[in-house]
Amino acid sequence: NFLVSLSPLKEAWMKKAIQIFRRISGACSYFHTLIRWLPVYIAAQWSFLQEMLGADRLKQAFKLPML
User: Fold this and answer.
1) Distance between CA atoms of residues 4 and 31, nearest Å
2) Residue 49 and residue 58 in contact, taking contact as beta carbons nearer than 8 Å
3) What is the DSSP letter of 63?
C-alpha cells in the first residue's frame, strides 16, 4: 500500500526532472549555437569596421596585421 501511494509522487518527480533536463539541454544547444556563430559575427563586424574606417587607420589604431 505504501508503494502504491509513493508511485504518483515518483512519477511527478520524473516528469519534473525530465522538464528540467530538457530546459538545460535547450540552454546548452543555444550556447553551442552562440559559440559557433560568434566568430562569424565578429569577423563580419570586423570587415564592416575596416570598410567604415579604412584598413590603414585601423592598422595604426590597433597595431595589428590585417587578417
Assistant:
1) 41
2) yes
3) T
Question: CB–CB of 55/39 below 8 Å?
Answer: no
The residue to which cell 589604431 is assigned: 61
pLDDT exceeds cutoff 90 at 55: no
pLDDT of 41 reads 86
CB 66 within 8 A of CB 59: yes
The C-alpha atoms of residue 14 and residue 10 are separated, in whole angstroms, by 6
Mean pLDDT (the chain) is 80
Looking at the whole model, is its pTM more than 0.85?
Answer: no
C-alpha cell at 30: 543555444
